[in-house]
Amino acid sequence: MMTKGRIELGIGAGTFWKAIGSYGGPSRTASEAVAALEEAIQVIRLIWNPDKTNKRKTVSFEGKFYQLQEAHPGPAPYYPVKIWIGAQGPKMLNLIGRLGDGWSIPLQSYLQTERIDGAQKIIDEAARANGRNPDSIRRIRGLAGIIDQENRLEKSLHGQGETVVGSAGVWVDELIFNAKNHGVDSFVFWPASEGNELEQIRLFAEKVVPQFKEKLKSSC
Predict the structure, then answer these.
(1) Residue 189: strand pairing partners
(2) Helix and strand totals (H; E) in the chain
(3) Largest CB tally within 10 Å, which of 136, 152, 178, 217?
(4) What are the backbone angles phi and psi of residue 25, rounded to the nearest 5°?
(5) Distance from CA of residue 90 to its chain's centroid?
């Protein structure tokens, strides 16, 4: 409610089990983690979507990993919050195609760029098999780096990583490369200039995003 529609939920199966255990969380096998995440998505959506016509209505869920017994859902989000799932394994990618609203592409150190297209195919096939339009699922990539207004540095990996250093034009080319070659339609900018993050975000919004949209439109 506070942001009036500027929030999406990013979620994953776990991965860092020792860290999770140090906080008192469970340690699960890969298969258990996928099944638990599928249940969690169902629970989240039950809680997020209360019946507005009946404020006394409760919801229940009986799963292997999570249970709800006449829980009171809500308040409802200001708008339908999308669930973006970070994943790289076939079972998780299949889950995205079945239930997810977006795929948060893992960093290069976890999923090499040359594997993205194969992962996209798994998501698309799972979506179609479940009566969903693959185009309804967002494809999100994080890119970290610095927008260098004075063009002192140039480092663009052209889709081979997630670090970009250079002018607004270099950033635009990198975004175009990902959109055209790997079907990425959304980007998360991570400013890597410590102490200057707000200025970097401003440059991204004012210098990179408009150029990217115009160049992408003209190239279609």
Answers:
(1) 143
(2) 7, 9
(3) 178
(4) -85, 170
(5) 17
CB 121 within 8 A of CB 183: no
Predicted TM-score of the model (pTM): 0.85
Q: What is the CA radius of gyration of the chain?
A: 20
DSSP state of 156: E
Whether 126 and 181 share a structural domain: no
Q: Does the structure show a pLDDT above 90 at 127? A: yes
Q: Mean pLDDT across the chain, nearest whole number?
A: 87
Domain boundary among the residues 76, 111, 136 is at: 136
Measured CA distances, 57 to 22, 53, 63, 71, 72 (Å): 37, 9, 20, 9, 7
- Give the CA count within 13 Å in the CB-facing half-sphere of 124: 9
Q: Which domain holds residue 81?
A: 1-136
pLDDT tens digit sequence for 174-191: 999 999 999 999 999 999
